[in-house]
TrEMBL record:
The lineage of its organism: unclassified sequences, metagenomes, ecological metagenomes. One of its GO terms (molecular function) is transposase activity. This is Transposase, IS4 family protein. InterPro entries: Transposase_11 (IPR002559). Residues 39-68 are annotated as: Disordered. Residues 102-166 form the Transposase IS4-like domain. It comes from mine drainage metagenome. One of its GO terms (biological process) is DNA transposition.
């Protein structure tokens, strides 16, 4: 029963309807965006090995007549090129993973599990949330979260910490 409710995203749809009904016509001063860790008691997913290794390249500088393959776009570049919200959310990994974060004292802490990314309005009202793997960088979720929040409420500006600067 719980799996069916989770697959249909009943709670997410109810939350979106509640936010639109209560805050949809109001102007929100600012949206605070941050992520927090969710520890899980499961093994992290093993990384997928490429099926076919890339062909070996010649050593040294390439000749100017050689045609280089175009560089692979990063996730943020693909998001900026006009992906839909559903495609952006589907592109984010969701498997259990190992994550690390620098705490307020400057020490690095690691955990196994997931990461919860939240957009919170004035008065600590959660507007939108996305759960990803723990290893996902915060900046890769900023564009989908901003798109999701903009569809629900009208806000003046977004506040983010230094983790949302692109690496």
């Amino acid at each position: 029963a719980f799996a069916a409710l989770a697959a249909q995203d009943v709670a997410g749809a109810a939350h979106a309807a509640l936010i639109k009904a209560q805050l949809g016509d109001q102007l929100i001063g600012h949206i605070a965006r941050d992520a927090t860790e969710i520890q899980a008691r499961e093994k992290p997913a093993k990384p997928q090995q490429p099926v076919v290794p890339p062909p070996p390249r010649k050593r040294g500088r390439p000749h100017k007549s050689d045609v280089c393959p175009p560089p692979v776009l990063t996730r943020i570049q693909r998001q900026l090129q006009g992906m839909s919200l559903n495609a952006m959310l589907a592109d984010l990994p969701r498997a259990c993973d190992v994550g690390s974060k620098t705490n307020s004292k400057g020490f690095k802490s690691s955990w196994i599990g997931y990461k919860l990314h939240l957009d919170v309005a004035d008065g600590q009202i959660p507007i939108s949330a996305v759960v990803t793997s723990a290893s996902v960088h915060d900046s890769q979720v900023a564009i989908p979260l901003a798109t999701l929040t903009a569809a629900r409420v009208t806000s003046l500006y977004d506040l983010m910490d230094a983790a949302y600067c692109s690496p």
